[in-house]
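Same chain as my last thread, 196 residues:
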Amino acid sequence: MKQLFEYLGQFGAFSQRDKELIGQHCKPLHLKKGCNFLEADKRCTRIGLVTKGVLRAFFFNDEGKDITKYFIGPEQFATDLRSLNEGILSETYIQAESDSELIVISQSSLKVLAEEVDNWETTVKNIIESRLLAKVAQKTAMLNQDATTRYTNFVKENPDIFQQVPLGHIATYLGITQHSLSRIRKSVSDPLFANW
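reply #2:
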């Protein structure tokens, strides 16, 4: 729970009473590798702060191939905000790439916290804005980079995620084939990548 309050504290301040109330609405969740936090064609009814491990958000394209949208590592929230807020079916799967631990808050608990914790809605808004801006910046940068640069930047910025995720999933995230990724990995001579 300490991890949750440290994370929330970056975006808003809470009294001891608020922290106790938030704590009452949090549940720990252990997800084994390969287990889903969310499935497509179902409503998202919870959010989860990842405290350990890596999750992957993905969808299936028209040819039935799974495409990675993004990865969710420690101190990041796993959810489908549109499905959660609008009550629509999700188009996204969120699955554990490694054994993972999360602190989960249900949709009904989110409503209670919004009503009873003074700074809750502002804090959640700040978190959402921060994550969206980071994702937009990351995607914009990737659009202006060649495949090798996308790969090397991904590894440098996400070393923990890189070591827990299959290369095929990284390839679809980077928008390249696994064959191209293998070729790039062989061509990179930076000592940082020497053992990979």
